[in-house]
Amino acid sequence: MTTTEIAAPRSPRTRGNGTNWEKWGWLYMRVSGVVLVVLIFGHLFVNLWQGTGVSAINFAFVAGKWADPFWKWWDVTMLWLALIHGGNGMRTIVNDYARGRTTRGILKIAILAAVALLIILGTLVVFTFDPCLGNPSSDALIQMCAAK
Amino acid sequence: MWLSTEASTIMGGLFVSVQTAGTPPKASKKKPRPAGTLYRGNEGMWSWVFHRITGVAIFFFLLVHVLDTALVRVSPEAYDAVIGTYQTPIMGLGEVGLVGAIVFHAFNGLRIILVDFWSKGTRYQKLMFWIVIGLWVITMLAFVPRHLTNVFSH
Fold first, then answer.
1. Inter-chain contact B72–A36, Cβ cutoff 8 Å?
2. Which residue of A has its CA nearest to B78?
3. Whether CATH 1.20.1300.10 fits A21-147
4. Is the pLDDT of residue B113 over 50?
């Protein structure tokens, strides 16, 4: 058995000279949290409150929103901030409850993979969206796509 | 002489006579609870518990929500078919739960930020928890009837 090095009393805590990632993660949760409150409340207001709420959502509704770059950037910002915020939260929970070193590693890789994959997918979907895909379902779309 | 039930249980049958012979004070119906030895959870703990549970729930919804929205890149029919399931009564009730979780997580998250950065944050953390609950109730009272009307009448 190897002897464990015990630091002398009152010796300063050493954390290595690298970046304190946990601190930046902690700060990220708070900064992104405030922005997400605004972005998600706005998202819920437009999609679930205005008009007839959830029953009005369809392809044409999305096409209408994403015709404006404002909503494209709104949604992409929300996508990145929320997935990283959620992924970091899940990482914290895994660190708290998963006992084995291997289990923790596998779970955190799975979280990272899910977050990275969905960020890439979501970003591509927003910026390559084609409102004229398939059969345009609303009059406004039919006119717009016929003009193309 | 009166012994606490815990003490007499520990002593087992040896001192049963003490327990039966004793006269427990009937006036104090509240059992004396140990203070300061065991954390039994107050506003601080429950806000933390709810924050975790709502956070995990929102995360898993987010995974699904990005995937269902990605169907707009497949075809309008595919997207409309899947979003149509969000408009059913059962999913409508699920959305009440989702919005409830988001609203709590949002307000309590702001409370956490105030606890961390506001100099008086820790002093008012209990009060702020109840403000969070109050704002949650108000938001849900505004949202739920309107949302359920949309779900059940369209």
1. no
2. A59
3. yes
4. yes
